[in-house]
Structures
1.
Amino acid sequence: MSQLLQAVGFGLATASIVALAAVAVSLQVSVTNFFNFAFGDFMTLGAYVAWSANRAGVNFVLAVLLGGVAVGALGMLANYLVFRPFMRRGVRPVTLLIAGVGLSFVVQNALILIWSPSPRRFSLNLGNAMRLGPFLLTPGDLVMIGASAALLLLLHVMLAYTKFGKAIRATSNNIDLARSCGIDSDRVISLTWFIAGLLTALAGVGLVLQESTLSPTSGFTELFVIFGAVILGGIGRPYGAMLGALIVGLLTEISGAYVNAAYKTSIAFAVVVVLLLFRPQGLVKARGLIR
Amino acid sequence: MVYFLTDALVLGCINAIMVVGLNLQYGYSGLLNFAFYIYVAVGAYIAAVTTMGPSTVPGITYALGWTLPWWLGLLLGGVVAAVLGSLVFLLTVRRLRSDYLAIVTVAVAFIVWNLIDTYQPLFDGDTGLFNVPQITGSANISSEGYSAIMLGLSAALLAVFVWLSRRIFRSPFGRLLRSIREDEEVTAAFGRVTWKPQIAVFTIGCFLAGIAGGLLIFYISAWSPAAFLPLESFILLAALIVGGSGNYWGALLGAFVLIEALGEISRYVPNFGNPANVGALRAIVIGLVLILMLRYRPEGIIPERWLKWYRTKEPASALADSGTPAEGHAPDVGPAAPDRPAPAAAAEVAGAVGERRAAAVAGPSAGNVLLEIRDVVYSYGGARGVDGCSFSIDRGTVTGLIGPNGAGKSTLVEILSGRLTPQAGEIVLDGRSVGGRGPAGMSRLGVARTFQTARVLPHLPVLENVMIAAQAQRGEGPLAAMFWQRGWQAQEAALREEATELLGWLGLTSHLDRPAGSLSGGQRRLMEIARALMAHPRLLLMDEPTAGVFPETSQLIARRVREIAEAGVTVLLIAHNMAFLSWVADEVVVMAEGKVLTRGPLEEARAHKDVIAAYLGVAAGESRGPQASSIGGGE
């Protein structure tokens, strides 16, 4: 029992990272209606920028923020140069997916050129693991869970109560109608890429800190876990994505505690695939951005 | 130097087999399989462990060790990959949208990879297999000699696979796959079950992957999980798209140029900094080329449309003049224009319908009523679309369905075409209750349709767009397509001739070989009529056949619809254009708020006070009930 609860604790920590990433994906998908295949590499870039800045003596929080800005800018650039021309032409969603594969090639290998393929150590030692009720968590885990929850809450406030949030929701619901109501949907999409980029970099840093190593494929290897969470939650629904992330995170850690840990990702995938077969529309039915 | 060349060519041929297989899946039928290389790996492992002897080296473990002959191992590898592929297809592809599918294929591939990498007793885990026997057995042979032998084998297999994919391309099976790729819904509306041909071609593609994997492992003699990372699948896909997806020459070009040539060139790039840099640079080039190609030449270097898909034996000119008006110009075919003799196609339509009618007469109901709609109800969530609608249609008549927006006309047509299932009530076609049979089922019962916004298969030639609609075609299965051409070649010629005549009859003779996506709005509507007739329907449903069409084309459509009805096909059409209706319709049915308001000749219906009220939204008379009077307010 204590083993299970402990795994739940780890699962919460993993879920908080996956949730950030999944919400970033979901936010972007909701306004553009396609999956960015280079998303994993975007996460890696965020982590590298943060690591470099931190090593150059920049304060950790500031370094992470720098990573966020870099990924946000890359997202806007990718949207402008790669994805938007396709969307304007009205191509099949599959084409955008393949364009994303091309972008992933470019970004991932540019990371190799810049930072070399050898793994780097990136950790933040805030102290030893502590016992909190039944859970055993490090202060780093707690900071991650807290930061993730705070950011998601902030995002919720933005989506639900600000004018810009309303514009995102309108664009996601019906882009043509939003346009004809005077919403500059190009700008909304562009800014959404930026906001998603901020979250992406943060998720990337969280991911790397959890493993303590950073390599050019760090983000790519987690790509499908995150996509799985997004699809499971219902595409284009940030709240669904949080639920999906929670399920995937818990599954990974709990199964890792009972069977060979090498299979933990496979088990999470298998469960996601099976759940999808029964609910192809996702657990939370995909529709607008907010009910 | 010679060895260097043969070595590169062997790998080139093996890669080409993979890309040709991927082309069957993605190029022919639009199935995006991001995990193609997993099937290559499975083929390689199976070929290796079935031909190797039992493990003798301590610490090296792997299943089987049957010492089978190499060709059997190769075949088994292909078969196991094919079986795995069809299982994955059945589990996922059938149920998921194309872009989810791509992601799910990767998830499944990861599970397979993870299992092979971690579970040692299977294929020795992450260490992989070594010393896989050569196909020449223990014969002492130089590596130059061996690579020449392997070149012969893989080139011969590649030739066979290219030849088979060419046969598939030209067959009714190939046309069906392309049609599904372009628009699954249209294909289903003409009676096809779309997942069956897809699973067939997916399985064949995985078989090719497995064979390629077996060849590869017999050539390089070692294999480990590090050899099949997701990157490999993406490179194959990039090669296909750059070369030209859908075209087997494009697949070959992509495999040899993008994979092999680029790989060879990158050997000559001097190392700089980290040794991984050259490889990274190569991947960046591939990524950029992929994006640029998708953007500026999405059909690839050698586009699909460059392939000839039929042999031209008969002189095309003999058929060229059978049609009346040319496209675009104003054809002088108003309803008042003197009737020219209907071309052979119309007679053929009449003949085909005649046969069907004869069959119907012999059947249980020989009455004059073809279609009866009884109290049909359909609502979208809370909003009612069709709300207790009843009327019947006689054989060989043209019935116009009119009414204000939101009256439920299109919903009714969707129900009749099988796309929607009525929630209550009954649809009786020729004495048989037919509600809820789905589009394919209704098509097989002789219901054909045109769409509210004309739907074409944009990248296919107009002729193929029409031919796809013919029912009960032979050669739509994979085996007949590849190995029994004689069974369907005569039929193909006949179908092509019929489609050519129908298109000529509708004034599209000069567009037969143009991609349908290049047709104008009016031409698309004409093509849709030809397509529907190609199915030899007894009931033709037309949803606004003249919307957004030049008046001249409307007149042509009107004339043709009359002739179709005279040939014995019953027509139900939605229209808003009163002049058009007065030319074509024997009778109109007026719908409002999901119910039939009245029916009769157009002039009578137009004069009916309820109809005026329904169109103008003013309550007139008590028949409308309290709800409607409240809309009318101050009457």
Note: The longest helix of chain B spans residues 143-170.
2.
Amino acid sequence: MMNAYKHMIKLLAFLVGILGAVSAKSQDINANWFTHFELETSDGAQAMDREFEWGETALFLTANSGRWSFLSETSFQAEKYRDQQFTVERVRVRYEFNRDNAISFGKMHTPVNYWNDNFHHGRYFFPTINRPSSFARFIPVHEVGLRLSGQSPMVEGVGYDIVFGTGQSEGDEAFASGVQSYTASFSWAPTPQSKSMISYYRDAILDHKDNPFHGGNHHVGHDDFQDHDGAPQGLASGSETDIAYELVSWSFHHEGDTWRTLSELSANRTDQGDLNWAAFQYLGYRVNETLSAYALFDYVNVSKDEIHFSAGTEHRIGVGIEWFATNSASLKVELRREHKDRTTDAHQDSTVLEAQLAFGF
Amino acid sequence: MAKSFTLLFFMLGLATANSSWAANTYIVVNAPEGSSLDLDSLEALLRGQRRNWDDGDAAKVVLPSRESPHFNAIAQKLLGTSGVVMQRLWFRLVFSGRVNAPDYIDSTQGVIQAVESQAGAIGILVADDPPEVQEGLTVFEFK
């Protein structure tokens, strides 16, 4: 616990220092904050009748001066809902080599798919109330590392990102075991409203049986659910087996005046085993400037021979509405049918009604 | 004859219903020296498809705010969408860290002032005639 606080203080000192340095001759500094409240009711056997939650509150800071820019995102959630009240979700500095290429260092969102690259922790801009189910297990949300980004000077809308990362096992300890993860991501935006991305991510899961994700069929007993930061949940030490983790993802997003769509497909495997699959589809129809109706489909399938993640399937299918009550407040209401059948959990089928009030300033 | 008058009144009605109907769209640029100022590059900056001038310095983009009378007209011209969609697209770009946050300005005069006061700024506005700007700035008509 003390170590966690020390890291937190170091990161905050780093954040304040960088911001101070950049702001000394900064062209502009921007601050935005976001928060949300959720109310959920379900007929599931293990669910409470009604559950109210004050979600994450995120402070987003950006500053830039010439070729340098700074971005940070810190989040707070009350102790009642999360063990670690304050977390640094992103903190990075970026330097532009020239018009089209840049290098960044720090903690960042891994550019593996459209959702993770474009939506931050504030729910105000999420197309649905929750992230796709694959985020709880397969998507490496953050990486501490070095990122090269750029775009083609010849073809408008073609871009790349390459990340050399610390890896998920070492968390925020920058390169504690050297470079453990690699991300290569390519995108194409034929118009500003449409973007497609394809990526390959490779990581080494260190001591995989002691990893908080673990729930594979050679070691049943640990749930592979992780919180958003992948914080260990009181696991005992055990094997020191390191295994490879590979993820291939494809995304497509389009937002026009009337229709909006987001498709996320991914396949992953551990230790070169069988593939696990995840698919997410959002389709929104804008009724008018403030009101949209949408449908969502979310599916995860983990192979029965998987050695790291718990095997089984999960899916959610639902409909919802999104209403921008003001320029700073949005209300989403979703009705979902959920199914979960994993080796580490009891079989669950439930109908969920969830509402989320999100603010962005 | 009666038909011609009807058509004329209809056209006049349209013209007065939307004050920006007969106006033009202009791009005002306060670019670093030596930057290539071709219209494609300027449009890419205003659409958030590029972040920097040729030398790598970040461009400061100045866009109409929701309170601007030209909010939707400029979004339509620039992206073929409504103002709300344009603003959401820009928010996503900013929060992903791919571009710097733009300035949102209510009035045409405010856009000119914001571009004049910030080196490396680029703005877009609607006016009947090309705006008068201080020396060193460039104005392009966006057709």
Note: Residues 219-239 of chain A have pLDDT under 50 and may be disordered.
